[in-house]
Amino acid sequence: MTRPAARGGSRASADRLARLLNLVPYLLARPGIEIAEAAGDLGVTERQLREDLELLWVCGLPGYGPGDLIDMAFDGDRVTITYDAGIDRPLRLTPDEALALVVALRMLAETPGVANREAIERALAKIEDAAGDLVGAPVAVRLPGDTRRVEALRAAVEGGRALRITYYTAARDETTERVVDPLRMLMVGGRAYVEAWCRRAEAVRLFRADRIDAITELDEPATVPPQAVPHDLTEGVFRPSSDLPLITLRVGRSERWITEYYPCERVEAGDGDQWLVSLRVTDLGWARRFVLGLGPDVTVVAPVELADQVRATAAAALDAYAVPVAAVRRAPADSVPPGDPAVAAGTQ
């Protein structure tokens, strides 16, 4: 039980050491800085910064006597380093740290919805210049999905152009053609979306980039009406509400993962290893396909309409695989290709 705590303590000590080594050159470059301002810049509380300064006061060169230790002067809430004990340069990035930072910035620059890509690219150029050969390894950063499609969407957003798109709606399992006026690009849950005013629905809609089958940029500007308000996506794309259908499933141990992956209203223990799980869905058509994909360890409890739909779809699928055994036995041997599974099914 003590090992995790020890690792956590070691990590905290390492973080503090790095902070202390950077603190001295930071303060040297800003003599007389207010402690509150320094704490804000360094991302720590004033109390933590004061504790760091007290620790620095007893650090220095071997001998640890007068003239060996780091010294500083306080003027009210302002601090000035008066002796740095040779710690006058900030830490340099290790090769792994430099590469990780460069990759993260490249990914950020490619992310849809980023407001100021030029600032990111300037910061990236400075870090690559400072790191030099540390980041010389060839690294290609690509977002998941069709990069060309995302670039076309981003160009339309930045150019303020209307789009004609062919879009697959998974909830209804249908493909439609729409004219949309883009509002913004964004990344949610690792997927790229374009948020736009849909002229067909006369409302703001989110369109997943990987579900857009075709894009045509129209020769007209995007016309976004005043009532078009972007969605609040701080809690994700799907936000359950009381007006959506509520379904209840009885799930076994192997399907409990859905309680972690989907927002559930209620999870209760049932008989044995079974749980009763209630969640909101966009519509029962999506719920039917969802349940059918889960396997035999899930049973629909409510609503009855969904249970009937699942039962009917499953029965239709089984009927499609059914083979009349008597008919196969009556068929001439040369009417069935060699190796046909129907022959084996009819002779067992």
Automatic annotation (TrEMBL):
InterPro entries: CBASS_pafABC_assoc_protein, PafC-like, PafC_HTH, WCX_dom, WYL_dom. Residues 15-128 form the PafC HTH domain. Pfam families: HTH_PafC, WCX, WYL. PANTHER family: PROTEIN PAFC (PTHR34580:SF1), PTHR34580. Coiled coil: none annotated. Residues 150-216 form the WYL domain. Residues 248-318 form the WCX domain. This is Protein pafC.
